[in-house]
């Protein structure tokens, strides 16, 4: 849905309140179509971010897994490698002889 929303469950160290709020903000931006709402919509926008952040926090806290926690640095390195591969300049095909 939104590439800026990252998985926050089962990491060591756990997701921070700021990370959860940032994901909620991205979600509300995506749903509303506003990067920054007008004054008329600011209260509704901020209330939605706060409510979704609270719900997301409760969700993350209530989930269970038997998988070991993922290492943030390792996962970030994997994401950078995928991005570098995805956006790497294409090599021209070598001519056949």
Brief write-up:
The protein has 97 residues and is mainly alpha-helical. Helix content is 57%, strand content 4%. The protein has helices at residues 17-32, 39-62, 72-86, and strands at residues 11-12, 70-71.
Largest sheet: 2 strands, parallel
Structural class: mainly alpha
Q: How many strand segments?
A: 2
Assess the beta-strand content as a share of residues: under 5%
Shape: flat
How are the SSEs ordered, and which strands pair?
Layout: E1 11-12, H1 17-32, H2 39-62, E2 70-71, H3 72-86
Parallel strand pairs: 1-2
Helix pairs in contact: 1-2
Q: How would you describe the overall organization of this protein?
A:
The protein is mostly helical and 97 residues long. It has a domain at 27-79. It is 57% helix and 4% strand. The protein has helices at residues 17-32, 39-62, 72-86; strands at residues 11-12, 70-71. α1 crosses α2. The longest helix has 24 residues, at 39-62.
């Amino acid at each position: 849905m939104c590439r800026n929303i990252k998985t926050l469950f089962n990491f060591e160290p756990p997701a921070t309140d700021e990370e959860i709020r940032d994901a909620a903000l991205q979600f509300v931006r995506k749903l509303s179509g506003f990067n920054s709402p007008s004054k008329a919509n600011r209260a509704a926008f901020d209330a939605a971010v706060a409510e979704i952040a609270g719900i997301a926090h409760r969700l993350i806290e209530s989930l269970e897994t038997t998988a070991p926690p993922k290492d943030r640095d390792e996962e970030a390195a994997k994401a950078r490698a995928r991005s570098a591969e995805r956006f790497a300049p294409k090599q021209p095909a070598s001519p056949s002889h």
